[in-house]
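Two proteins, back to back. First:
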Amino acid sequence: MIAFAVKVLTFIPDRISHANWLVAIGLGIVVATNPPEHPWWFVIAVALGCAVHMIGDMVTTQGIHLLWPLRPRLPVPSTFYRGRSFVRFPIMGKAGSGMELLVLTPISVYAVVGLACATAAWGGVTLG
């Protein structure tokens, strides 16, 4: 998932696009050698990541097929409903637009800084 996120968010230029696997393997090694103490950390991290991703897709003009594979008519206005099953709240415009990049960049930087701080704390380094 980390490799996919690094590729999709274009943190690595296309000419060295396979380096996203190096980032993912490096972060995977850090997490594998220093796992959090709570036994549900992985389940919570994956579930939270999936939920945030779905919400992010839902705020684009495309929306998400919320009840896939079912295609029921949903009781929402057509502004929020496309193609019989795609639920959307189009406040971000098209996926990949400048608006999306403007919102995702600070969120991604915050996540990377948080991961760096957690890695430093696991290593016993204090920042302050």
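And the second protein:
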Amino acid sequence: MEKHIMGENGISYTLGEDGLYYPNLYLPEETEYPIGKYGMLRKTYLQEHRKGLYLELVLAGKLNKHLHQINEECNQMMDRLVEQMQERQGVTEELKMQDQMAWVGRMNNIRACAEEVILKKIVYR
């Protein structure tokens, strides 16, 4: 038996130790992107709840790019939402100088609310 053969479908096969031929399949090369907090949350969500989409992205070599885009989109939306909520709630630098603890409390609340929106609308969709 030959060690390597070419199938009729154009796929090459290699003879295994058990006497069966296995296709020589490789995942496409994927560009490495930095993936932050929201990208990692998205990856976990896809693995646990959207397995088909996760496998599709892995097999197409697009998972890292997708996770990077999600992370960038979330960070940009977080910045916008925090800024808008600060304006609407009157959280200013003046408040920060007058009462730091009140400012910190309001900012923590704003960030938590903004993150909740981001997770619901982008990461877990």
